[in-house]
Amino acid sequence: MNLNSKLPDVGVTIFTVMTHLANENGAINLSQGFPDFDVPPDLVNRVFHHMRSGSNQYAPMQGVLGLRERISEKVDALYGKQYDPISEITITAGATEAVFAAITAVAGPGDEVILFEPAYDAYVPAIRLNGGIPVPLNLRVPAYRIDWNEVREKVSSNTRAIILNSPHNPTGSILDETDTAALIEIVQSTEKEAGERLCRI
Ligand SMILES: Cc1ncc(COP(=O)(O)O)c(C=O)c1O
Question: Which of 20, 69, 105, 179 has its CA 20 to 30 A from that of 90?
Answer without folding.
Answer: 179
